[in-house]
Amino acid sequence: MRYRPRRLRRNQAIRSMVRENHLRPEDLIQPLFVKEGGSVPQAVPSMPGVFQLPLDQLVEEGRKARDAGLGGVILFGIPEGKDPEGSEAWHAEGIIQQAVRRLKEAVPDLYVIVDACFCEYTDHGHCGVLRQDGVVDNDLTLDNLRKAVVSYAEAGADMVAPSGMMDGMVDAIRSALDESGYYELPVMAYTAKYSSTYYGPFRDAAESAPSHGDRRGYQMDPANGREAVRELELDEAEGADIVMVKPGLAFMDVVLRLRQSTDLPVAVYNVSGEYSMIKAAAERGWIDERGVVLETLTGFKRAGADLILTYHALDAAAWLRGEA
User: Fold this and answer.
1) Which GO terms describe its biological process (predicted)?
2) Annotated catalytic, 246?
3) What is the CATH architecture of 22-320?
4) Is 174 known as a binding-site position?
């Protein structure tokens, strides 16, 4: 037996030396939910450890993310008022616009990404303007998306991340930002966002469940893989700076497909259902939470992800620093 693979596994020193993939705090992005009104954080029952934050508490969470060395945060807004178009999404004094300004004033070196979608802002919970037949009108939604992303840029956002899966959304956003002078602001596209049952807890946190129907008319079929590459080609041609796969755990093959098909940075969203399953099992003592989280996040890196959006980000950063 001339070759023994165990030679390179004998101790921590050699294992570290030949490790192929590395997980770092700066690879992680923490999602944060900010809610208009109120003065105390509201726990999300289906997501242990996750809260809807008032503006003042948001700043403290931003400082924690900065001090932990995370890559940044991504914001989701929950307004007090909703309407059929989701007009609070582009209001100059909307909850997200206030949140971005507060964070950039208090924690200027924190990288702030804004999710750009309308499901939290519409009274029907869909990701855009509805036609009379109840179908989302793609192009009218793009008009509103243009207004929203410019307002986020004006508030001081460092990046926008369109997640509604509207056709042509990256092109619309890129054009609107460039025309308004924000040509240096990057776009992280939710390139392959699947119509997934893993999103359930998020809809509790963002108060964004559809009042009727579902989102299969614009989000992707979980059975499809090749379609993700076509979406990648479109987003890349339209000017996306980063491309994303959502969810993550059941779609690592899609992360790999995108990694093999582009030189752009690839992100993956470790979504609410994936988070809550781990938390629930850990609370029952069925799994080692630290080990499972770090193994899962490393799996995303191995599949080809450069960035990971995850509700585990703060905990994972502490574990990576060797903290209990």
Assistant:
1) protoporphyrinogen IX biosynthetic process
2) yes
3) Alpha-Beta Barrel (3.20)
4) no
- pLDDT surpasses 70 at 324: no
Show the beta-strand stretches assigned E in the chain.
Answer: 28-35, 42-43, 51-53, 72-78, 112-116, 159-162, 188-193, 242-246, 266-270, 307-310
Catalytic residue at 279? Answer: no
Task: Report yes or no: 28 and 72 within 8 Å, Cβ to Cβ.
Answer: no
Taking residues 23-29, what's their average pLDDT? 97
On whether 203 is known to bind a ligand per the annotation, the reply is yes
Q: What are the Cα distances from residue 202, in Å, to 5, 89, 96, 209? A: 43, 18, 17, 9
**What is the predicted pLDDT for the residue at 81?**
87
| Residue 32 token pair | 């944060």
Is 26 annotated to bind a ligand? Reply is: no
Q: Mind listing the pLDDT tens digit for each residue in 169-198?
A: 999 999 999 999 999 999 999 999 999 999
Tell me the per-residue pLDDT of 9-18, one tens digit each, with 9 for 90 and over. 999 999 999 9
The three-point CA angle 278-224-273 to 5° equals: 15
Pick the catalytic residue: 35, 82, 193, 279?
A: 193
pTM for this prediction: 0.94
Residues in CB range of 10: below 8 A, 6 or more apart: none
Report CA-CA distances (Å) from 118 to 161, 163, 249, 264: 12, 9, 25, 26
What is the rounded distance in angstroms from the CA atom of residue 265 to the CA atom of residue 251?
A: 17
pLDDT class of 97 with cuts at 50, 70, 90: very high
